[in-house]
Design a protein that fits this description.
The longest helix is centred in the C-terminal third of the chain and has 30 residues. Strands 1, 2, 3, 4, 5, 6, 7 and 8 form an 8-stranded mixed sheet that branches. The chain is built from 14 helices and 8 strands. With 359 residues, the protein is of the alpha/beta class.
Length: 359
């Protein structure tokens, strides 16, 4: 019997995106799913649009909060959906993101292996119009991301640029329940990385070198509005979470992975935090370009270029912004399209090489 997938979709003021999100689920080639949408008391038409589509398919469940819970209770929202879910597998799809039509079909088969607790893959980052900006891929380190030996994936998070996009994630529900559901703590408000790290001690992961989701970057994003108020775009808060986790799991980690307590690694991480603090303006400029706010990005670039702590690469980027290379949405879109084409070409070459080796 084909396992059921429960899709958890938290949403807030996503009236411009929620229809695309839901219809990408309706279009899935794998049909045995339920979609649990939790609207966090949206003040726009998000709930009404979701309700309209729900009436045409009884696999969609829709819950509306009477008051806004916000990101401080994001774990409670996710676990609310988890409690009423009926699937053996859990997939994450926030209300502003969407999937390719074969997303579920590609992932479902890997869970026939009982030691696999989570699967993830590559994603395309798009702007609010759905135009590509970049590709998040892990191809170059493929063998490191299977979490074998169990727990080894956690060391990847010492690199503060490492990230697994939730839009690509599928989790075995029994394992998620075993760790007590979705996680966060007082330092880091989001559930994605804390939950993945906790799962890292329970079983193997499966990485699929293919596009499994489209992650939308826009100016109303909860993550962006949280990160821009921090000194390191959320990295310091994550490091605080990670260190609490390592202390709590000290015996297990020390036994299997003594490198978690390597002073050099901690020292390196502190240096990275310092660099992220110096590069915050660069990160914000990149985001504003993605949002199409070119003039704001230029104004910030004029100020940021005086920062003596920037690398040569960062200064070159700022000069390119000031020269007007990103003067309109078309130029940003063309760069994004090129990156996607390059990704697909490299996937094609990689597949052909593997076929050649196996024959």
């Amino acid at each position: 019997m084909k396992p059921k997938v429960s899709i958890i979709t938290p949403t807030y003021n996503h009236e411009d995106y929620i229809e695309k999100c839901i219809r990408s689920v309706l279009a899935q080639s794998y049909r045995n799913w339920e979609m649990i949408i939790i609207d966090d008391d949206s003040s726009d038409k998000t709930y009404d649009l979701a309700l309209k589509i729900k009436k045409s398919d009884n696999r969609i469940k829709l819950i509306k909060h009477r008051i806004r819970w916000g990101i401080k209770k994001l774990d409670v929202t996710y676990n609310q959906a988890l409690r009423i879910s009926r699937g053996e597998l859990i997939a994450i799809l926030e209300g502003d993101d969407y999937w390719p039509k074969d997303k579920l079909k590609q992932q479902i088969k890997v869970f026939r292996y009982n030691d696999i607790v989570m699967s993830f893959g590559d994603c395309i980052v798009v702007n609010r119009h759905g135009h590509p900006l970049e590709v998040n891929t892990y191809r170059n380190g493929r063998n490191r991301f299977q979490n074998s030996p169990i727990g080894s994936i956690i060391s990847q998070f010492y690199d503060l640029d490492f990230y697994i996009s939730p839009v690509t994630v599928m989790i075995r529900k029994s394992t998620l329940n075993k760790i007590g559901g979705f996680k966060k703590n007082k330092y880091y408000r989001f559930v994605d990385i804390p939950t993945i790290i906790e799962l890292g001690l329970t079983g193997k992961f499966n990485y699929i070198n293919n596009i499994l989701g489209f992650y939308r970057k826009h100016e109303q994003s909860s993550w962006f509005n949280y990160a821009k108020e921090t000194t390191t775009m959320g990295r310091k808060e994550f490091v605080n979470y990670l260190r609490v986790f390592i202390k709590r799991k000290r015996k297990t980690l020390l036994k299997n992975f003594p490198e978690f307590f390597d002073e050099e690694s901690l020292k390196k991480q502190n240096l990275m935090l310092g660099q992220k603090k110096r590069e915050k303006e660069i990160s914000l400029i990149r985001h504003y370009l993605a949002f199409g706010e070119v003039n704001r990005a230029k104004t910030m670039s004029k100020k940021a270029i005086q920062n003596h702590g920037l690398t040569l690469r960062d200064k070159l980027f700022l000069y390119i912004v000031l020269l007007g290379v990103f003067n309109n949405r078309l130029s940003i879109r063309l760069i994004g399209e090129f990156l996607v084409l390059r990704y697909r070409f490299m996937c094609f070459i990689h597949t052909r090489i593997n076929e050649f080796i196996s024959t």
